[in-house]
Amino acid sequence: MAYHIRQYGLQQGALEIQYIEEFFGEFPRRKTSVEVVSRLGSRDHQIVMAEAALTSDPETVVPVAFKVSHELRPFETDKKLADLVSRLSGCVQFKNRRILYSWIGGTRRDWRGRGFFRALTEQQEAWALDHGFDEVVVKTKNRFYDMRATLDQLEFNVIKLEPNLDNSSASKVYLSKRLGREVVERHRSTRELIKIG
Ligand SMILES: CC(C)(COP(=O)(O)OP(=O)(O)OC[C@H]1O[C@@H](n2cnc3c(N)ncnc32)[C@H](O)[C@@H]1OP(=O)(O)O)[C@@H](O)C(=O)NCCC(=O)NCCS
Fold it and tell me: What's the pTM?
């Protein structure tokens, strides 16, 4: 099966992200299109979504999974990103290397376990390599067990743990994957890509 992936330009992509985030009721802090534009506007970025037919109505195709990533520079002025860079210091080498931060992503509950996130991740990695990125970095928490298991399967390595002494399930976990031609050669998914905007 070929996964159908759409890669969006910033304005339409931000609206699509705001829309799909509404389906992730388990996470209280959902991103708005304004936040997405503000974060991505001044940096290299990628917005990808996978779409699939509704089981109840195969004629209707809907977005089922998404992934948003952006460049992370060694000297960030945005407060949150500057904080992230400082937390990654000593774990990620920024000098003369391009780092891609995998910011947000997920698969709608009814479509989980069917390879959509792997397909998006592989598309992200192929794009990143083509755009000269050396490494993909991602942040999660201990309690996001599905995400941790998925990142494990996708061969991300833990590079840092920030323990939360009161509640270890809230400890932050940083992971990364170094890119190279061999990574792309190991990809398993067949994908059809449509670029929009
Ligand atoms: C994590 C998540 C994105 C996985 O999406 P998905 O589309 O179901 O993932 P895929 O089907 O592409 O699976 C990719 C790989 O991870 C594995 N995997 C996925 N979910 C898993 C789970 N719960 N336990 C173990 N392995 C899992 C799959 O077996 C697959 O491995 P394989 O390709 O080697 O066979 C999805 O569960 C999700 O959106 N969860 C909520 C998001 C979240 O936790 N956000 C927290 C903020 S970081």
Answer: 0.97
